[in-house]
Amino acid sequence: MTVTEETLERLAAIPSLQVSTATPLSRYTRFGIGGPADVFAQTAVAEAFLAAMEVARSSGLDYTVIGAGTNLIVADQGFPGIVLRFVADRLLAAGNHVIAEAGAVLQDLVDFTVARGLKGLETLAGIPGWVGAAVYGNAGAYGHSISEIVHRVRFVDDGRVRVFGNGECDFRYRESIFKEHKDWVILSTELILAPADAQALSRTAADILKVRNEKFPPTMKCAGSIFKNFLLANLPPEVAARVPPPVIREGKVPAAWFLEQVGAKGMRRGDIQIASYHANLIYNDGAGTARDLCALIGELKVRVRERFGIEVEEEVQYVGL
Ligand SMILES: Cc1cc2nc3c(=O)[nH]c(=O)nc-3n(C[C@H](O)[C@H](O)[C@H](O)COP(=O)(O)OP(=O)(O)OC[C@H]3O[C@@H](n4cnc5c(N)ncnc54)[C@H](O)[C@@H]3O)c2cc1C
Fold first, then answer.
1. 195 lies in which domain range?
2. Is the CB of 86 under 6 A from ligand 1?
3. Both 177 and 276 in a single domain?
4. Which of 56, 46, 143 is CA-nearest to residue 101?
5. Is 174 a catalytic residue?
6. What is the pLDDT of residue 231?
7. Is 178 near ligand 1, meaning CB less than 6 Å away?
8. CA 316 – ligand 1 centroid, Å
9. For a substitution probing ligand 1, which of 40, 62, 71, 172 has the most ligand atoms within 8 Å of its CB?
10. What is the CATH number of the domain that holds 266?
11. Has this prediction a pTM greater than 0.90?
């Protein structure tokens, strides 16, 4: 389905919606990879966002929602349809309850809560991206994830605004119900955090940020870890038995360990490079393409399957692929 003049006119008529056409998505992904979106539209106003979704639905166009693009691989051909961003970014606190809109930068939310002496997000310091996607993918680090403090999530389902409590979100390691319903769009989340000493939280966050910046230089064109780690309990016993105990952290086996065993470190295809110091870190070292990136990912999956009989599963999300 191609975008018609009529569809563009309907989108242009929505107040507060910024609309562009043939928009290069490489500008909106940290990998710096991705062809054009037929239409790119963003707004900080929920009504305008809902109206844009309704235009997409009624015109039969595919749509997808992105955040800061730090966990995306976008096709070199781009996305044939509408790419939407909900950029509302307010943060509100009342006691130990915090409401964060989906377009708020996760680090801003970390700083906001730490400054108020609210514990629960300090170990997520330095995770790039926005709040909406953090809830969608249950972002986390250092043994904690955002699901531990999510109280409620407000989202759009088929033009209706709905609210789920934590239990209904079906959070698991890097998973939530929102990953199973890619047409749902998170608008905001309400968090409940525990009071704690602001200075101690701030020190924890600063220490973590320092380690992260060494591992993932802020200018590196990457998506963090490409593959999810494995829960030890989910590995076949004969595979778990091959993993050296010191490798196991917080009940997980890093995907990087399996990747390292199959020679991933330092592999390269075109301008796509696997870090020499981290087998689960792939970056764009110049003019990399989604084609080379996907080929490299495919090769790693085959190597791990052949050597260990297990499937490494992408944490990164695909658009147009
Ligand atoms: C250097 C680096 C380090 C990282 N380290 C970590 C880490 O330690 N832990 C971790 O968990 N992640 C990590 N990540 C991955 C990434 O930061 C997270 O996945 C982040 O939550 C993605 O946010 P984003 O706004 O960039 O989302 P995007 O990449 O834009 O989108 C990711 C997914 O979220 C969906 N989405 C976005 N917004 C919404 C919304 N409002 N409603 C519904 N769905 C939505 C998109 O459709 C897409 O499928 C790292 C990434 C990088 C680049």
1. 91-200
2. yes
3. no
4. 46
5. yes
6. 92
7. yes
8. 8
9. 71
10. 3.90.78.10
11. yes
125 lines ligand 1 (CB under 6 A): no
Report the CATH number at residue 43: 3.30.43.10
CA 226 – CA 316 distance, rounded (Å): 5
Residue 206: inside a domain, yes or no?
no
For 124, which DSSP code? G
d(CA 21, CA 108): 30
pLDDT along the chain (321 residues), means of 10: 89 97 97 97 97 93 96 97 97 97 98 98 97 97 95 95 98 96 96 97 96 90 95 94 92 95 97 96 97 98 97 96 95
Q: What is the residue whose two structure tokens read 């593959």?
A: 227
C-alpha to C-alpha distance for 63 and 285, rounded to whole angstroms: 30
Q: Does the C-beta of 132 come closer than 6 Å to ligand 1?
A: yes
Of 27, 33, 64, 66, the residue with max ligand 1 atoms within 8 A of its CB, to mutate for a pocket test, comes to 66
Domain boundary among 86, 118, 146: 86
How many Å apart are CA 13 and CA 211, to the nearest integer? 47
Residue 82 shares a structural domain with residue 11: yes
Last residue of a domain, one of 56, 86, 116: 86
